[in-house]
Write a structure and sequence with these properties.
The protein is α/β, with parallel strands linked by helices. The protein has two domains: 135 residues, serine acetyltransferase, domain 1; 70 residues, Hexapeptide repeat proteins (UDP N-Acetylglucosamine Acyltransferase, domain 1, 3 Solenoid), CATH 2.160.10. Helices cover 45% and strands 11% of the residues. It has a five-stranded parallel sheet with strand order 1-4-7-10-13. It has a four-stranded parallel sheet with strand order 2-5-8-11, with no helix packed on it.
C-alpha cells in the first residue's frame, strides 16, 4: 500500500509541476472513441447497407436514416462543444453529407476505373485501404473547413494507423482522387491536388527545409507542399517537395523520382 501511495503522490506532484498533458479542473478534451463512433455513423449514412445496419430496405430507410443522423448530430455536437465550437456546427456538418457522398462516389469510381484488379464498387468501398483513407480525409477536411482541426486530426490519424496513408486534413484535394495500395503515402497540410489525380504507394508530397524563429520553432503559415494539377499520376516511392513546386496537368512522375521544382 505504501508503494501505491508513493506512486500516486509522485504523479500528483508531476501534474502540479508540469501542467501540460493534463486537464484537471478544466474542460475535457474530445473523446477518441466518440470520434470513431461519429465516423462509423457517417459511413452508415454515406453508404447504407455497407456498414452498420445490413438489412436496409426502401420501407425502413426513412426510420433508420433518421436514427443515424440524430445520433450523429448529437455525438458530434458533444465533441464540438468540448472543442469550444458552436453546437450549430454539428447540423452544418450533417447537411454536408450529400455533397460529400457525391464526391466519394466519384473517388470510388476512379479506383474502380484505375485498378484492373478491382471487380466492383462494393469491393472498393468495403476493402480498399486507399478509399478508406480518402473517405476519412473528405470528412476530416469538412471539419477543418468548419474550424474544428482537432476533431479532424483525430480522424485522420486513425486512418493513418489503419491504412498507412497520412493525409493531412487541411490539404485541398479535387474529385476523382485515387490512392492505390495506400501504404506509405504522405500528403502535407498545404498540398493542393487537382481532379483525377492518382498516387501509388510510398508517394510523399512534402515540404523542404523550413525557416525557424529565434526560439528554433518552425515558422508556419506559408505554402510548404507541392501542387499537382489535374490528371497527374505519381508512381511508387516518388517524392515531390516544396511549396513552389507545381506538377503540370497530365504529367506522369516515375517511381522513385525526387522532384523539388
Amino acid at each position: 500500500m505504501t508503494r501505491l501511495l508513493d506512486a500516486r503522490e509522485a504523479l500528483i506532484r508531476s501534474y502540479q509541476d508540469q501542467t501540460a498533458g493534463q486537464r484537471i479542473d478544466e474542460r475535457a478534451v474530445p473523446s477518441v472513441s466518440e470520434c470513431l463512433a461519429i465516423l462509423r455513423l457517417c459511413q452508415e449514412a454515406l453508404f447504407p447497407g455497407y456498414f452498420g445496419h445490413r438489412d436496409v430496405t426502401s420501407e425502413n430507410l426513412n426510420g433508420l436514416l433518421a436514427g443515424i443522423l440524430e445520433a450523429l448530430q448529437h455525438k458530434l455536437q458533444d465533441q464540438i462543444v468540448l472543442c469550444g465550437g458552436g453546437a450549430e456546427l454539428s447540423w452544418t456538418f450533417v447537411e454536408s453529407l450529400p455533397s460529400l457522398r457525391a464526391r466519394l462516389l466519384l473517388d470510388a469510381q476512379a479506383a474502380l476505373d484505375g485498378d484492373p484488379a478491382a471487380t466492383s464498387i462494393e469491393e472498393v468501398i468495403l476493402a480498399y485501404p486507399g478509399f478508406l483513407a480518402v473517405t476519412v480525409y473528405r470528412l476530416a477536411h469538412r471539419l477543418v473547413e468548419l474550424g474544428l482541426p482537432l476533431l479532424a486530426r483525430i480522424l485522420s490519424e486513425w486512418a493513418h494507423a489503419q491504412t498507412g496513408a497520412d493525409i493531412h486534413p487541411a490539404a485541398r484535394i479535387g474529385e476523382r482522387f485515387f490512392i492505390d495500395h495506400a501504404s506509405g503515402v504522405v500528403i502535407g497540410a498545404t498540398t493542393v491536388i487537382g481532379r483525377g489525380v492518382r498516387l501509388y504507394q510510398g508517394v510523399t508530397l512534402g515540404a523542404m527545409s523550413l525557416p525557424r524563429d529565434e526560439h528554433g520553432k518552425v515558422v508556419g503559415g506559408s505554402k510548404r507542399h507541392p501542387t499537382l494539377e489535374d490528371n497527374v499520376t505519381v508512381y511508387a516511392n516518388a517524392v515531390v517537395l516544396g511549396g513552389t513546386t507545381v506538377v503540370g496537368e497530365g504529367s506522369v512522375i516515375g517511381g522513385g523520382v525526387l522532384l523539388t521544382r
